[in-house]
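Amino Acid Chain and Its Fold in Token Form
===========================================
What this section holds: a protein sequence and its matching fold, both as plain text.
Structure line: whole-number tokens from a learned vocabulary of local backbone shapes, matched to residues.
Purpose: to set a sequence beside its fold so the mapping can be learned.
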Amino acid sequence: MGNAEAHLLAIMFIVPFLSVSFALFQYNRYPSKVFVGDSYTYFAGMAIAVTGVCGHFTKTLMLFFLPQLLNFFLSLPQLFGIVPCPRHRVPRLNPATGKLEPTYNFTLLNLALYIFGPLREDTLCHVLLAFQAFCCAVAFFIRYQVASYVYES
């Protein structure tokens, strides 16, 4: 299978996924009317992975997951039991201010709250989406500017 056919197959996987995701986003944006839970998370990961493998761009795909990889590496001390790991590692809501405050858990959410201070949920979401967009821009830069120095065409 050539690159054109592989990319066409990837598009055939990703367009329905993006359509469903956009429809879900309408109900899941702040204030959320639905909670997607693990089902959508696993489905999204599987859809993105299949698209990357079938489209022959797994290295590029890994670059898009930089925030998720950062979250994983931040979490390693708790995942390996070096630091106690509670069941829920999400930030704490302060009812008096209506803002999320960091807890002593090693996650990207808490890191953002340590850096920017207590934030409303929608503001924290915008900060993390901006970070994801920045990481995707860096991924494109690495893929199309730096990769030619490392990999043969």
